[in-house]
Write a structure and sequence with these properties.
FAD/NAD(P)-binding domain, 5-stranded parallel beta sheet, single chain, alpha/beta, 4-stranded antiparallel beta sheet
Length: about 425
């Protein structure tokens, strides 16, 4: 899976090379005047990064690679990161959760201070971050990479307690294993219901990838069972390709009800495993309820979210439009056409690091160019892919053109793409966690 799914491998490129995988791409200078060099008489510039996911970790490491004199602090309460990409394979019994877990040891070895605390306060005027243990960090620039927060207030009857009965499995970890155990315990012939929220959401293709991989498990272990997708939208990316694959691989096993047919879920009852839509009630043997989402909580505390619950930014610099000296990357930002995915977050982290070093040096950063290809697994040896190149236009990223080669038309998903997805996962986790 988001973000989740196997999505991604976005790369950012500029005139300075961050890693051997980056591509050099020139771009016009930002039209705005460069910010003045900060006063650093007392020492090197301080950059705090809140959130140790793909975006935050990649950003922290890139900052140190670009300028070893920077004082970089990564604020993340979890000492072990559990990746969402490939976690759908854990649910389907194709992979173990331990293969998704990474420590921050090598991040710290890069000279980055690792603060294993939750950030509880941001004072933008004083440029400080308050931590759960009462300590305070000062910064010259702050990067928010908090990912998403699940909106447990969005569906009647579905709160955090309900997720212990009807797992969302949208944050990898115990929820992933809970959904896997429920599938294993389900009788053959049972109905698996997946509730899909409206956009924006982390990794948009992930629910359909999840349905595919669960179908792979059921076909082998419980072939009389069915999967029902209740979807709060009518269309989704690569829909025709997913549907064709379902007909070929899992005929008659997966059904989807879209928004206009009454697929939007309005409430849930964990006591009966019942899910209610605008036009009907469905009782599931296993209910996977994915609630609506918004930017991670610290973004709202910092004042960086608007009425949508997400963070508006200047796409050219990732700077918050609402709070000075704060940058927002990854799933939390309103990025326009670029998807909310691990790969996009990683690329944004590297691009943001380069931007910050330029700004701290009193230089004008060039607008970033992000490019990549995304993967979604439908079976162990069957994957879809899609690619694009994204550039800033105003406050958002837009797709300038599609990338050919690996697979734009994607008419015949192949084993090669499934292998490429695994190579991508190795690359992106190595970039972020060493």
């Amino acid at each position: 899976m988001a973000a989740a799914s196997l999505s991604g491998f976005f790369r950012m490129a500029d005139t300075r090379r961050l890693t051997r995988r980056n591509v050099i791409r020139g771009a016009a200078a930002v039209a705005a005047a460069a910010l003045a060099r900060p006063s650093l008489a007392q020492g090197a510039a301080r950059v705090a990064v809140i959130g140790g996911g793909f975006g935050g970790a990649a950003c922290a490491r890139a900052l140190r690679r670009l300028d070893s004199k920077l004082q970089v602090t990564l604020v993340e309460p979890n000492k072990v990161f559990t990746a969402c990409p490939f976690s759908n394979e854990v649910i389907a019994g194709l992979r173990e959760l331990s293969e998704q877990q990474f420590s921050y040891d090598k991040v710290a070895a890069d000279g980055i201070t690792f603060a294993a605390q939750a950030a509880t306060k941001v004072d933008a005027q004083a440029r400080t971050v308050g931590l759960a243990d009462g300590t305070t960090l000062s910064y010259d620039r702050l990067v928010l990479a908090p990912g998403i927060e699940l909106r447990f207030d969005a569906l009647s009857g579905y709160d955090e307690a309900a997720s212990t009965k009807m797992p969302h499995a949208w944050n990898a970890g115990e929820q992933t294993l809970l959904l896997r155990r429920q599938l294993e315990a389900m009788d053959d012939g049972g109905l698996v219901v997946i509730a899909v929220p409206a956009a924006p959401m982390r990794c948009p293709p992930a629910p359909y990838e999840r349905a595919s991989l669960i179908a792979h498990y059921l076909k082998a272990k419980k072939p009389k069972s069915k999967i029902l997708l209740l979807d709060a939208k009518d269309a989704y990316s690569q829909q025709k390709l997913f549907e064709k694959a379902w007909q070929d691989l899992y005929p008659g096993m997966i059904e989807r009800i879209g928004l206009s047919q009454g697929g939007r879920v309005t409430s849930a009852n964990p006591a009966t495993n019942e899910i209610v839509t605008d036009f009907g009630n469905y009782t599931a043997a296993v209910a996977n309820v994915i609630p609506p989402q918004r930017a991670g909580r610290i973004a709202a505390i910092a004042g960086a979210t608007d009425h949508t619950g997400w963070c508006p930014i200047n796409a050219g610099t990732f700077e918050s439009k609402l709070v000075p000296n704060i940058h927002v990357i990854g799933d939390a930002c309103l990025g326009g056409g670029i998807p909310k995915s691990a790969s996009a977050a990683s690329a944004q982290g590297k691009a943001c690091a380069l931007t910050i070093t330029k700004l701290l040096a009193g230089e004008v950063p060039a607008p970033p160019v992000l490019e990549g290809v995304c993967y979604s697994a439908l079976a162990p040896d069957y994957a879809l892919s899609q690619g694009g190149v994204y550039q800033p236009k105003g406050d958002i990223f837009v797709q300038e053109w599609a990338i050919g080669g690996l697979d734009n038309s994607a008419e015949l998903p192949s084993e090669a793409k499934a292998k490429a997805a695994k190579t991508w996962f190795h690359t992106i986790t190595e970039d972020a966690f060493g």
